[in-house]
Design goal:
Number of helices: 6
Number of strands: 0
Largest sheet: none
Mean pLDDT: 82
Distance between the termini: 9 Å
Strand content: under 5%
Helix content: over 70%
Order of helices and strands: HHHHHH
């Protein structure tokens, strides 16, 4: 399962690289009157650097090659992210209940998590809609999109509870959503690991 996932994403990355070799759109140089998106420039430099490094790795016939290493890191990060998301939510909730963290801090952390998970959900959703992937792989990305969406909703409920930490109803709503998320993570990990548990 994990190998299939990495191989499919590798095909997507290599196809994207081949597409990028085609005609590039005309880009006007930045001027003082034209705002520069520094984040976009940073991402472009990163992508350009990675493409160059991939060419060097392929020419050197490195084993494993850079694409495999990068995609392995993406797969491991995705798995760790959904698991550690539960840890983060549970830990913040417990800290709010016990007074180990102030409500203002918990609210700020929860809002950051909600925003980040929403962005991840959108990215995974796009991958889950790729018809070039086989149904099983699309299902994995769709599951990731749903889980990160649920994690974001749970973080939103945590922020809502932090607005009024003494409200037991808000605490109960958060804890119910957290338990639902925990169950989804457990089922997802079991699905990806397969019957062998690896």
């Amino acid at each position: 399962m994990r190998t299939t996932w990495i191989a499919a994403v590798a095909c997507m990355l290599l196809a994207h690289g081949a597409e990028a070799k085609g005609k590039q759109p005309d880009v006007k140089p930045a001027t003082a009157a034209m705002p520069v998106d520094k984040d976009a420039l940073t991402v472009k430099r990163l992508v350009d650097g990675l493409r160059q490094a991939i060419k060097v790795s392929q020419a050197a016939k490195e084993e494993p090659d850079l694409v495999t290493l990068l995609l392995d890191a993406v797969a491991e990060t995705s798995m760790s992210g959904v698991i550690h998301g539960h840890y983060a939510l549970a830990g913040c909730g417990q800290a709010l209940r016990s007074g180990g963290l102030g409500a203002d801090d918990v609210r700020a952390y929860a809002r950051d998590m909600a925003q980040n998970w929403q962005q991840l959900s959108q990215l995974y959703g796009k991958l889950g809609g790729q018809r070039a992937f086989d149904p099983e792989l699309r299902s994995i990305f769709q599951s990731l999109a749903l889980m990160t969406e649920k994690a974001g909703q749970t973080a939103g409920l945590l922020a809502h509870w932090a607005d009024l930490a003494s409200d037991n109803g808000r605490a109960t709503a958060f804890e119910g959503a957290l338990e639902d998320y925990r169950g989804r993570v457990k089922a997802f990990v079991a699905f990806v690991q397969g019957p062998s548990g690896k």
